[in-house]
């Protein structure tokens, strides 16, 4: 499980609750049905208008998989598999084909299969262009998906402001009535709850999820870049030790040291 992500959500909730407890005389003011309807219901409505529901559920699934550690990139594992392929490639295509079947990383397994084309008239530049096109395609699609939640983060604050505006209109309509002066404070507090809801949903949920998905996309780009470089070096029949050191160049020194400790 990715405890950092889970801890972040727990901390955000704790910060909000602690602030509310220390600042508010009555926490019941936060339980406003009108604010919940316009912010939560409105956000769901505009989300369904803007994006297919299946796409949102897919992105949420990716995020929660990441939170539980399923989508974390294992750079060192990828490098180990590249080393294995390099050794097998030198033993012949039958050994290389057998080694490909044991590869766990899908992009590496798919990319390594392309090396069988070297027997035909495919230049190394054309091969690299093919692999890099696949990398760019995945990167663009994943970044577009990450931007979905950043777009969604714009909706709750706007809807919260809408709810506040409705509350203020209701307040102004009641002015001039009996005991209206004593009702101004409580009415304004309730009106501002909608804005608070919008800010909380945007900054504690949608923006963090969008940033998390962006980070996943960047990690995926590094992993795929390592794969492309490894495949091209294998195709060039470079020494296995050189291939290992070359692909490790995509990692920080501290990340390479982890491999050395194994």
How many domains in all?
1
Mean pLDDT: 85
Poorly predicted ranges (pLDDT <50, ≥5 residues)? none
Summed up, the helix count is 11
The proportion of strand residues reads under 5%
The amount of helix comes to over 70%
Structural class: mainly alpha
Overview of this structure, please?
It is a single chain. The protein is mostly helical. It has one domain (3-261). Helices cover 80% and strands 0% of the residues. The protein is elongated and about 95 Å long. It starts with a helix and ends with a helix.
In short:
The chain contains 11 helices and no strands.
Keywords:
single chain; 262 residues; mainly alpha; 11 helices; 80% helix
Topology:
Blueprint: H1 3-23, H2 33-50, H3 53-67, H4 75-89, H5 93-101, H6 106-113, H7 124-152, H8 155-174, H9 180-235, H10 240-248, H11 253-261
Helix pairs in contact: 2-8, 2-9, 3-9, 4-5, 4-9, 4-10, 6-9, 7-9, 8-9, 9-10
């Amino acid at each position: 499980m990715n405890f950092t992500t889970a801890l972040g959500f727990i901390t955000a909730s704790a910060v909000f609750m602690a602030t509310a407890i220390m600042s508010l005389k009555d926490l019941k003011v936060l339980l406003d049905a009108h604010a919940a309807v316009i912010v939560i219901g409105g956000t769901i409505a505009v989300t369904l208008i803007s994006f297919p529901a299946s796409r949102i559920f897919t992105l949420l699934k990716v995020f929660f998989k990441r939170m539980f550690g399923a989508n974390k990139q294992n750079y060192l594992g990828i490098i180990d598999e590249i080393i294995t392929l390099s050794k097998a490639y030198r033993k012949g295509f039958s050994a290389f084909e057998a080694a490909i079947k044991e590869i766990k990383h899908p992009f590496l397994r798919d990319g390594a299969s392309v090396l069988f084309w070297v027997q035909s008239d495919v230049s190394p530049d054309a091969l690299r262009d093919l692999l890099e096109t696949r990398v760019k395609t995945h990167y663009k699609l994943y970044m577009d998906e990450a931007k979905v939640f950043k777009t969604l983060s714009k909706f709750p604050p706007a809807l919260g402001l809408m709810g506040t505006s409705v509350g203020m209109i209701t307040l102004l309509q009641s002015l001039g009535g009996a005991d209206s002066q004593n009702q101004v404070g409580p009415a304004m507090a309730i009106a501002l709850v909608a804005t608070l809801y919008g800010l909380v949903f945007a900054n504690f949920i949608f923006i963090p999820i969008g940033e998390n998905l962006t980070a996943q996309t960047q990690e995926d780009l590094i992993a795929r870049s390592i794969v492309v470089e490894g495949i091209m070096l294998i195709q060039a029949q470079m020494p296995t030790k050189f291939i290992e050191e070359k692909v490790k160049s995509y990692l920080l020194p501290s990340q390479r040291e982890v491999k050395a400790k194994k």
